[in-house]
Amino acid sequence: MRRITAFRLAATAVLAGLTATACGTGSADAPANAGQTSQAAQPADIDTHATVDVRLVLEPTSLDIASTAGAALDQILLDNVYQGLLTRDENNKIEPSLATSYDTSPDGLSYTFRLARNATFHDGTKVTAADAVWSLHQVTAKGSKNPDAAALASVKSVSASDDHTVVVTLKHRDTGFTWGLTGRAGIVFKKGTDFSSLAGNENGTGPFKLSGWKRGSSITFVRNDAYWGKKAKVAKVVFHYIKDDNAANNAQQTGQTDIETAADATLLQPFSDKSKYTVLRGDTTDKFTLAFNNASGPTKDVRVRRAIRRAVDNAGLIKALGGAAKPVGGPVPATDPGYEDLTAIDAYDPKGAKKLLQQAGYGGGLKLTVQIPNIYPTEIGDYLASELKQVGIQLTVRQVEFQSWLDSVYTKHDYQLSLVDHAEARDLNNFANPAYYFGYDNANVQKWYAAAQTAAGDAERDALLKKAARQVAEDAAADWLFVNQTLTVVRSGVTGVPRNFTSNRYDLADLAMAKKK
Fold first, then answer.
1. Contact 240, 495 (CB under 8 A)
2. What do you get for the CA distance between the two ends of the chain, in Å?
3. pTM here?
4. What gap in Å lies between CA 412 and CA 361, rounded to an integer?
5. Which helix or strand (DSSP H or E) is residue 55 part of?
6. Please, what are the averages of pLDDT over each run of 10 residues along the chain (517 residues)?
7. How many Cα neighbours within 13 Å face the side chain of 258?
8. Prior bond to 17 cis, omega within 30?
9. Which of 96, 166, 259, 452 is exposed most, by the fewest CB atoms within 10 A?
């Protein structure tokens, strides 16, 4: 299976806070219409000595990107400090990176990557094919600790045909292979790197270097003036980790930050002056998922799972949280391959929910417990409890530390219901893996998903993914409450700010600041 740890133990977009909006563009003080999809063009005169201060939410626990899980690491280190053979653009499309081009054999089993000839590591050493081959071998080696190791499970061999050409041979067709190379699995490290040293040091190839980390407060990058590609346009970027939305607003208003990511849709009024601020609205793949234990307890019964889905008015939840998301209805968001609008499956129907519970033998009532990491708003648990109460389900809400959630839910599968943000893109594989914490086991889904990975082309792949996703939704393997959008507040004069998928990676390549007049 691919990316078994796929959602990166997510908490990544900490929902600071369900900050998105519906699809309109309008005034920043109207939560349901906040944000826009365009920003000002880069000014003619930029300050190349500028420092840009950015508010982020979730701080990494370590900087060891080779073995430590958590999208907070990908968010700041990918593209900026470390680079892979391939990368993703603003719309999640695959693009060249350290590999400036590549070819695929007609049978789809061999990939030839041509590396940038002038690329160097931060210590000045030239990047060669030997480095890339060694790096890929570390990911594919038995017992690899790389969080994305499963992304290269189809790799048969890796070799260098010359100093700047890497050839990868696959065991079978893999439609997700190049996508896998856009993440950690594709990072090129210097041959022989001691990964245990990465927790405090780095030797990447990107346009920025790590300058300092004040734990609990901030991480600072400085421009790599010896960068082999297009140089960064600002001298320094400081990431400030501010969890509280009101504190983040204050920092943006008082000039402590220039960019406030994950802004709260209900707290945008101070930024309504368009001469001072721009509010950007962006897409994410953050699927806030009400997970059911499919393998044990009352939720092993599909009728109970379907009843819960019908009992919860997801559109009402979105509205209660400020109009800050989009309904999805299934495990694939609109920006991923295989998307289909599945919101009609087990749509809000309290009467139908009661009938299903009665059929399952719970006409007299049912008691369930949901575990929710305490990084998410308490309003979500309260809403779920209120909705389920109306159909005869007494829901106990347990707010737990994220580490506790990881232990009891993710690792031990000791739960009935759970809520977490599955932030990673293209993670339908979680439902094709019966060992995953969902405990969902459907042979057809596994067959279709596996066939999608070896499909001859994207159309065939997408058709198979749609079949699998629809079956997952019809089996009520979970309830996908909403897909979050994200709002970013940008101070006037700052341009090139990432807008989409900002909880997974935050590429600073185009960031610029106008010179003060």
1. no
2. 56
3. 0.83
4. 28
5. strand 51-56
6. 37 41 38 73 93 95 90 94 96 94 96 98 98 98 92 96 97 95 97 92 96 96 97 98 95 98 90 94 93 98 98 94 87 95 97 98 97 91 98 97 93 97 90 97 97 93 98 98 93 96 93 92
7. 19
8. yes
9. 96
